[in-house]
Structure formats: C-alpha cells, structure tokens
Amino acid sequence: MAATSEKAQRDEFARDLFLADNSSFPPGLAEKDWDESREHHDYAFAIADGLIAKGYRKPRTITTTEELDALEHGSVIRSEQRHYWVAHKEDGEGGNQGWAAAGTSRIPANLGDWLPAVVLYEPQETGKKIMQELCE
Predict the structure, then answer these.
(1) Is 14 left (phi over 0), alpha (psi -120 to 50) or beta?
(2) Strand (E) positions, the chain?
C-alpha cells in the first residue's frame, strides 16, 4: 500500500473518530470544526494511530468481478444480502477453485451477482499459512 494511501486512510479514520466523539454537537458543527480548525484534533490522530498499529483496517467494498478475482485464497467477503463467501483459489481435493459459502463447499454460479460486497478478511503471509493448514 502506498504511503499516501496509508496517510489518507489514517486521516479519514481520525476524522471519523473525531466526528463520532463530537456527535452531540449541533448538526454540521463537528464537520465545520474539523475542516476549519486543527487545534484539538491530536487525540483523534493518536487514537487512529493506536488502532491502526493494532491491525485495524477499514473494511473496503468491492463492486467488480475484477476486484473479486484479485482477492487471495482465504479471503472472506460479505454480500449486501448478508451471505459470507470464502475464496478457494488453490487447487484442493478435486481441483475445487472459486468461492464457497462460509461453512460449506457450495460454489455460486456467478458470485458477481452478489456484488457489491465488503471484504472482511484478506490473509497476510501468516494468515495464508493458517488458511492453508485449515484447508488441508
């Protein structure tokens, strides 16, 4: 992930935290305060930094089959219809590749019909090893 993208995500997260913390303000005032004065925002950035350091990432939404295809083996998504799907992109028993409903081996005919979807989990190197062991 590019540094500018990480900074933009951090800034957006800090803004969301600030607005949530100041949700009792009259409508529009918290947004105006965020946009016009950075005097009292340090705490929101400190909270955002702490949560990001612990691994929090804002879930992203995918809307195209290209984005879906780019997800790695072991990724988990949730459709708007609240269906959960797990990527099986490595040849398993019988060469079963694709997406399966969580907890089953059911593969949809066209997962693109279930988009948009929120990406709930994308394995990193450690996660990949765990998913491979679970899928064996």
Answers:
(1) alpha
(2) 60-62, 76-79, 84-88, 98-101, 117-121
* 19/32 Cα distance (integer angstroms): 10
Question: CA-CA-CA-CA torsion for 58, 52, 16, 40, nearest 10 degrees?
Answer: -170
The predicted-structure confidence for 1-36, as pLDDT tens digits, reads as follows 455 588 888 899 999 999 999 889 899 999 998 988
CA torsion sign for 84, 85, 86, 92 is: positive
CA distance 90 to 99: 11
Write the single-letter amino acid at 105.
S
Q: What is the pLDDT of residues 71-127, one digit of tens each?
A: 888 888 898 888 888 887 665 554 446 777 777 766 676 777 888 999 988 887 545
CA distance linking residue 54 with residue 133, whole number of Å: 25
Question: Do 97 and 61 form a contact (C-beta atoms < 8 A)?
Answer: no
